[in-house]
TrEMBL record:
It comes from Acinetobacter shaoyimingii. InterPro entries: MlaC/ttg2D, Tgt2/MlaC_sf. The keyword Signal applies. This is ABC transporter substrate-binding protein. The keyword Signal applies. Keywords: Signal.
Length: 211
């Protein structure tokens, strides 16, 4: 195969890859995606409201079904682990275990939080298109006349958006969880394995601390 043919073939392959990447971008606009996820979750919580009373296991199952597929747990893990996510500060096994544990507790946090909002009205704020790779969409929950803004920072995963961080009433949960994890590492004598095993992110504590 001569040089010209090789160059032409390479250019064709690269063009196909670029075109494929373009078509792989999420088809939904960010606010459409967020509303779909919120509607699906809250409608399920409302529909099963009676049998969910004092049944956290059932709430957790619904949240896992409705929300878990749309969480970018790898990105969230990097945010929360902070410097401990760097290869020089942790092993691949430690990062994988942290992600597994964190995903479990994240579902519990979201379950309890969204269950509280399930009987409230909510609306998606007007969205301004940006070129950011991590667009932010905000939902206002109306809690007895008080608006509670919940902002979702998204990640473009090719075929769909995923949620990589959440901000509640101006409080960056990823950053608050990072502070909680750093405190857990210190509490466990800087033993990362023990810190990972014992870490329980607490969204309510993060929000209350900032009030």
């Amino acid at each position: 195969m001569n040089t010209l043919v090789k160059q032409t073939l390479t250019a064709s392959i690269l063009s196909a890859l670029v075109a494929g990447s373009a078509f792989a971008r999420p088809a939904e606009a960010p606010p459409v995606f967020v509303k779909k996820v919120a509607d699906g979750l809250i409608k399920r919580l409302q529909a099963d409201h009676t049998k969910l009373q004092n049944n956290p296991t059932a709430v957790k199952a619904i949240v896992r079904e409705q929300l878990d597929p749309y969480i970018d747990s790898q990105a969230f893990t990097r945010i929360v682990m902070g410097t401990y996510a760097n290869p020089q500060n942790s092993t691949p096994a430690q990062r994988a275990q942290f992600e597994k544990n964190f995903r479990e507790t994240l579902i519990e946090n979201y379950g309890s939080s969204f269950a509280k909002f399930s009987n409230q009205t909510y609306s998606v704020r007007q969205y301004k298109e940006t070129n950011s790779a991590n667009p932010v969409v905000t939902i206002d929950f109306n809690n007895k006349g008080e608006k509670i803004p919940v902002s979702f920072q998204l990640a473009d995963k090719g075929s769909q958006w995923k949620i990589r961080n959440i901000n509640v009433s101006g409080i960056d949960l990823g950053l608050q969880f990072r502070n909680q994890f750093a405190a857990t590492v210190k509490k466990n004598g800087n033993d990362l394995n023990k810190a990972i095993a014992n870490f329980k992110p607490d969204a309510e504590a993060a929000v209350e601390k900032k009030k």
